[in-house]
Model the fold of this input.
Amino acid sequence: MKDLLTAVRLTLWCALLLSIVYPLLIWSIAQLSPGQGQGVQEMLGAKVHFTGVGQNFDPKTHFQSRPSAVNYNAAGAGGSNKGPSNPDYLIEVKNRIDTLLKQNPGLQTSGIPADLVTASGAGLDPHISVQAAKIQVRRVAMANQLQEEQVKKLVELQIERPFLGLFGPDRINVLKLNLALDQLRKK
Done:
């Protein structure tokens, strides 16, 4: 009987903690974040975009995101689960490399960062490396009839530093970079 009462009390405490206290705590923290837990929305052209989700952009005029294993569908995040020795995956990466080389004249295969040809684990990473943005500067500047220096400065202004300067590399949110690019084009 004593064990049964202990089990019932533990079950009730866990139910209270995990179904009321924890969700309220997470909801409260979300209210302090930008977008209050609803995501931060931005307009790019006539479409609404979320800054925390990777998206596909016009490959002629905008900076490109990291490839997506789920075709940028936020309803079904996930990786391809294909290993680096999978022949189908290798063909996919080779095609991405060929496309990048065609879109960015003068680029060498050795200069392509992995994040421009491989998808992230969830397939929806909204960030690219600083190097991935920099190799696209020439193409984007030419396509938008801007000076390369203007676009380089734009990239530098969009660099996000790691949390507390400790956790992770510098990175760039592609949507924010493309929004800034659109503002620069309007000037």
Observations:
- Residues 2-31 form the longest helix (30 residues).
- The first strand starts at residue 41 and ends at 44.
